[in-house]
Specification:
Elements lengths: L4 H17 L16 H11 L9 H16 L3 E10 L9 E14 L8 E7 L9 H19 L8 E6 L2 H4 L1 H9 L6 E9 L7 E5 L4 H10 L7 H9 L5 H7 L3 E7 L18 H20 L11 E5 L3 E5 L1 H24 L5 H29 L4 H8 L2 H25 L3 H15 L6 H17 L6 H22 L5 H19 L7 H29 L11 H17 L6 H18 L7 E2 L1 E6 L4 E6 L6 H7 L7 E4 L7 E6 L9 E8 L5 E8 L6 E8 L4 E5 L2 E2 L3 H6 L5 E6 L6 E7 L4 E11 L16 E2 L5 E11 L1
Parallel strand pairs: 2-20, 3-4, 3-5, 5-7, 10-23, 11-24
Antiparallel strand pairs: 1-2, 2-4, 6-7, 8-9, 11-12, 12-14, 13-14, 15-16, 16-21, 17-20, 17-22, 18-19, 18-21, 22-24
Helix pairs in contact: 1-19, 2-4, 2-10, 4-10, 6-9, 11-17, 11-18, 12-14, 12-15, 12-16, 12-17, 14-20, 14-21, 15-16, 17-18, 17-20, 18-19, 18-20, 19-20
The structure holds zinc ion (ZN).
The site of zinc ion has 5 residues, from α4.
């Protein structure tokens, strides 16, 4: 085997994976009318993402007018749906009612057959309070407008295309709720395509589908250039606590696909997300996927029927390979016969002992768990499980990925080297014991201890006598087959991850054995190089895809890609190990990874720590405070807290959902707090009817209510709407329960309940308004390196009322 060729193949693979995740170059304003131009869409991004425009804000009204104006200027029928949305779909929290007034902006492109099921292009146009939201979700809104323009130029289409721009997605999918619950157009929607963002760069991945979306996914693969999608992501997303507007559509039994880009996540929900920060290439990729899809749907004689879900993944971001689950079993059978052929030939030609093959198989597990142990320790040392720190880690994402990848490869090569020489048993055991112990720094860590013990057991099982190259490689192929079969049985939509590298590696192994090509010959080198480069490229692109989503809180995730890489890198790397050339490779990779992660840890609070400073007023209790709901108090927040001479102190304030906060006395202001009134009336059947009204005092953007009844409250209504699901009735009999209402009308909100004859109810109402109140000294300009989030830069006015009946 030619020395060093495998390293070159790995470099080529990483380069190819990099290209597979690169965004296309944005098309300029003169691009043909039928195509999607990011330059044209960026014009809308710049007009919309000027400043934060959360649901209920004055700025959102301006944005609403802009979107409606753009639709009308294009000649679409534009309409504003003015409604109330109540969150009932998705993976919501029990015990909290999330509702609000919303204004959806709807544009209709009529088709030739107005009665045919329509295509709905959905994107939300509200933002979180502290971000201009260029990515989330002005990118989606601007893409929607550019797609509407392109399709308008070629109408009439076969069927209606509806462009729905929802309000109130961020507080709780409220606009989508209102549309699907009430709007007459919703009934005839056949397919929903949603566009989202969780950052400001990266490719737009198709990450979620309805169930039985096989035909739709096939259509996407047929029309989308450079798709980024895989069925494991869609399967995992169903189990994740996240929601987008599409959750509402799927809850209604609609068929649909969801697209989002997730790069540069530091911009997600922060002030960084300005038009200048947004990668126009991400916009171009979004449009390049969604426009041809919507065009095909709108012009098709029929919409894709519900059809069994497929196993699919993009191949290096170029084509989408999709096949049914039974074909996955077929591929397993092919892989099994290839691996069996390898084992038979390896044994017949005495290229390895059975014991060597068995140790090669166990080595696959050992290198995986070794990588898990190293990366788990790194994750603990970096403190990624703390949400604020995760955010800071995201700022160092490229370093984090490079460091974690170096450590994962170090584990792979270290184990291969130990097997090749049948030595280093003691070093590996000591290393595992030390790493396991280190996991428990700052508190016993059961996971770290268990993995360390497993690693030690595996070291004893497979490191001892040298294993031949074919013993190692055929062993990894055997273990890979077991893994592939397990995945196909337990998680079929993730089976491609093991199957594809396994098929590639087993095919090359059979080819080499049957043709008796010498591994050291030129032809052998070409084969090994191609396998390593192609396989490693695909595995790296998958690894990067999943790491960007979950790597910051869970770097050990990358260890799961170690066995896949081992399948295709085995012969090249092992040959390096056997002739001693790799002796220093593993330690130097480990050191490189450690240095990179040290850099990540070193800079973890820079350059963008988070501040959450706001003004709090409870005039009835004469309580006026400046509050910082961030754990680590930065200099600016400390100075801002003490503006009125108060000394910052830590108190608990569970109401805001943040546990402990820093507070300091503030000068009084005349902020009008929300007004609470409660009436009770004895009902004929011995119960009492309660009526609770909360009116905003200062036209605030949001009302939060906390209710602590002594008795069970049932038959809840909100503004006359019965919220009578069992879950909600049960929740309201708990002693802590709440309502979050966005964009309340001036007359406020009315809740009614049925209660037993006697009881007591404590109500706390918070009204959140943007900015600082008049007459209160404002903090100095916040440094640009300090991001704000949550309640930052708001005024929170509180009222409390106790009512006996
Ligand atoms: Zn969003």
């Amino acid at each position: 085997v030619r020395r060093g060729l495998v390293l070159l193949a790995m470099a080529a693979g990483i380069a190819a994976a990099w290209l597979a995740t690169a965004t296309p170059s944005p098309r300029d304003r003169d691009a043909p009318a039928s195509s999607f131009s990011a330059a044209r869409a960026m014009k809308d991004v710049r007009a919309i993402a000027v400043r934060p425009h959360p649901s209920g804000s004055a700025e959102l009204e301006r944005v609403r007018g802009y979107i409606a104006g753009r639709l009308q200027a294009m000649g679409l029928a534009a309409e504003i749906q003015n409604a109330e949305g109540v969150l009932t779909a998705g993976k919501r929290k029990p015990g909290v009612v999330i509702a609000g007034r919303v204004h959806n902006v709807i544009g209709i492109l009529p088709g030739r057959d107005r009665t045919a099921p329509s295509v709905l292009v959905m994107s939300h146009y509200d933002t979180m309070p502290n971000t201009p939201g260029a990515g989330d979700n002005t990118a989606g809104t601007a893409s929607s407008l550019e797609i509407a323009r392109a399709l308008q130029a070629e109408r009439p289409l076969a069927r209606d295309v509806i462009f729905l721009h929802t309000d109130g997605e961020e507080p709780g999918l409220l606009g989508a709720q209102a549309f699907f619950a009430e709007h007459p157009l919703a009934r005839n929607v056949g397919i929903v395509v949603n566009m989202e963002a969780r950052g400001d760069s990266g490719r737009a991945a198709m990450f979620e589908t309805s169930t039985d979306a096989g035909a739709l996914v096939r259509l996407l693969g047929g029309v989308a250039p450079q798709p980024t999608a895989n069925s494991l992501m869609a399967e995992l997303y169903r189990r994740m606590p996240n929601d987008t507007d599409l959750s509402v559509a799927l809850d209604q039994g609609k068929t649909g696909l969801n697209f989002a880009f997730v790069g540069d996540q530091l911009a997600y929900h922060t002030s960084i997300s300005t038009p200048d920060d947004l990668d126009p290439g991400s916009l171009q990729h979004m449009g390049a996927q969604v426009l041809p899809l919507v065009r095909a749907l709108a012009n098709g004689a029929d919409l894709p029927p519900k059809a069994q879900d497929l196993i699919y993944s993009d191949l290096l971001g170029r084509v989408l390979v999709a096949y049914p689950v039974w074909a996955g079993w077929l591929l397993c059978a092919v892989a099994a016969s290839l691996v069996a052929t390898v084992l038979v030939l390896v044994r017949r030609r005495a290229l390895a002992h059975w014991s060597g093959i068995a140790r090669g198989a166990l080595a696959l597990l050992l290198m995986t768990l070794g990588a898990v142990l190293c990366l788990h320790l790194c994750g603990r040392l970096l403190g990624g499980e703390n949400a604020t720190r995760t955010y800071a880690l995201v700022a160092r994402y490229p370093l984090l990925l490079a460091g974690a990848a170096a450590i994962a490869l170090a584990a792979l090569i270290g184990v291969a080297d130990a097997l090749a020489h049948g030595a280093r048993r003691r070093e590996l055991v000591i290393a595992a014991a030390l790493l396991g112990a280190a996991c428990s720094i700052g508190g016993f860590d059961a996971a770290g201890a268990i993995v360390a013990l497993l690693v030690i057991g595996l070291v004893f099982a497979c490191v001892g006598r040298p294993v031949s190259l074919w013993g190692f490689w055929s062993g990894t192929l055997g273990a890979g087959l077991v893994l592939a079969l397990l995945l196909q049985a337990l998680l079929p939509f993730g089976s491609f991850l093991v199957q594809w590298p396994l098929l590639l590696a087993a095919l090359v192994a059979v080819l080499l054995l049957i043709t008796r090509i010498d591994l050291g010959s030129a032809r052998g080198a070409v084969l090994l190089f191609a396998m390593a480069a192609i396989g490693f490229a695909q595995i790296s692109s998958w690894g990067g895809f999943f790491f960007v989503l979950m790597g910051a809180p869970l770097p050990a995730l990358l260890a799961l890609f170690v066995p896949l890489a081992a399948l295709v890198l085995a012969p090249g790397l092992y040959a390096l190990c056997v002739d001693g050339a790799a002796r220093r490779l593993s330690p130097s990779l480990l050191a490189t990874g450690a240095v990179l992660l040290l850099l990540v840890g070193w800079t973890r609070v820079a350059p963008h720590p988070l501040a959450q400073l706001f003004y709090f007023a409870d005039p009835a209790a004469q309580r006026f405070e400046r509050i910082s709901a961030t754990k680590d108090l930065d200099d600016w927040s400390r100075a801002a807290l003490s503006l009125d001479g108060g000394e910052p102190a830590v108190t608990s304030m569970k109401l805001l959902g943040s546990g402990t906060v820093w507070t300091a006395k503030a000068a009084p202001s005349d902020v009008p707090p929300p007004r609470i009134t409660i009436e009770h009336r004895a009902a004929a059947d011995g119960h009492t009817d309660l009526l609770l009204r909360v009116q905003p005092g200062a036209a605030g953007r949001e009302l939060k209510l906390l209710m602590q009844p002594t008795e069970a409250l049932t038959e809840l209504t909100l503004n006359g709407r019965k919220l009578d699901t069992l879950e909600q009735a049960a929740a309201f009999s708990l002693n802590r329960t709440g309502v979050i209402y966005t964009a309340p009308a001036a007359e406020g909100i009315v809740l009614t309940f049925r209660a037993p004859t006697h009881g007591k109810l404590d109500v706390t109402a918070l009204e959140i308004s943007d900015g600082w109140p008049d007459g209160v000294q404002r903090p100095s300009q916040r440094p640009s390196s300090l991001l704000t989030w949550g309640l930052g830069d708001t005024t929170v006015a509180q009222s409390m009322l106790q009512h006996d009946w």
